[in-house]
Amino acid sequence: MVHLMKKAKASVSRKFMAVKNAAVSLVFRSRNILAANRGEGYIDTAIKILLAVVLGALLLAGLYALFGETVLPTLTERIKEMFNYAG
To answer: Where are the membrane-spanning stretches (predicted)?
Structure first.
């Protein structure tokens, strides 16, 4: 009976140590994963590309509005005045 109790105690102790080692390993792995900055450059690059596209679209829309309403009507008037031989 004493031998059986010693075996059970040793078995429980081994299982406990295995669980403890697995938990410690998981903590260290998690800490290394959270502290790593390997994929950080991809997010920065995506944000830069997105900003460039948005700013380019705003610039293009502004130029289109400027040329459509301000420059082109006065340009056509000037061309008509230039080729008006009667006046």
So the answer is: 45-67
